[in-house]
Amino acid sequence: MKQINAYTGRMTGYTYAIFFCFSVICASVQAEGPSYFTPEKVYQFATYLYEEGDYLRAAGEFQRYLFCFDSLPQNADSIFYRVGLCYRLGGEFSKAITYFQNLANNSIYTPLIDRSYYQIGLSYFSMKDYGKSSAFLDSSLHRITQDCVKLKMKQ
Questions:
Q1: What tens digit of pLDDT does each residue of 87-99 get?
Q2: What are φ and ψ of residue 107, in 5° steps?
Q3: Cβ(122)–Cβ(100) under 8 Å?
Q4: Handedness of CA 141, 145, 149, 150 (dihedral sign)
Q5: Rounded to an integer, what distance in angstroms lies between the CA atom of residue 100 and that of residue 77?
Q6: Secondary structure of residue 81 in the 3-state scheme
């Protein structure tokens, strides 16, 4: 078989065969390659960022995880809690309070609701708004059912 004719620039049979094989290999690699955008991979990456202390990027990835679904997944409460926690640890206290408040207001009872109330008070405290922190914790104490969270809030 011949290659490209240097004078005319036209492909010959050998060049077509190589081009065809290269195209088939590229197509099969793309079809079998790992998908980095599955919900599981997004969640794993968000968890990795959280564990590495990259909290604000982790918050974004946890939010992206939620957008992978047509409706909220069963673990949505824990994801909203993690997003709020990421924002609090990342210094974005107002955003953290928003996520924790939404979780506390819109969830059917989960243990995370009690923790959310505590995290809201802690976020106000971190903002150096001690009066608001104390007032919030005092007004929310009656809603808490877990003794360990109640003890933290009293402290």
A1: 999 999 999 999 9
A2: -105, 150
A3: no
A4: positive
A5: 10
A6: helix
Predicted confidence (pLDDT) per residue in 118-149, tens digit: 899 999 999 999 999 888 888 877 777 767 76
Tell which residue, 89, 90, 87, 19, has the closest CA to residue 101.
Answer: 87
pLDDT tens-digit readout, 63-86: 999 998 888 888 889 999 999 999
DSSP secondary structure letter of residue 71: S
Q: What pTM was computed for the model?
A: 0.72
Is the alpha carbon torsion for 148, 150, 153, 154 positive or negative?
Answer: negative
SS3 137: helix
Amino acid letter at 89?
Answer: L
**Helix, strand counts (H, E) of the chain:** 8, 0
Question: CA end-to-end span of the chain, whole Å?
Answer: 84
The two tokens of residue 13 are: 């049979």
Q: How far apart are CA 81 and CA 98, in angstroms?
A: 11
Alpha carbon distance 154, 149 (integer Å): 9
DSSP 3-state of 140: helix
pLDDT at 144 (0 to 100): 72
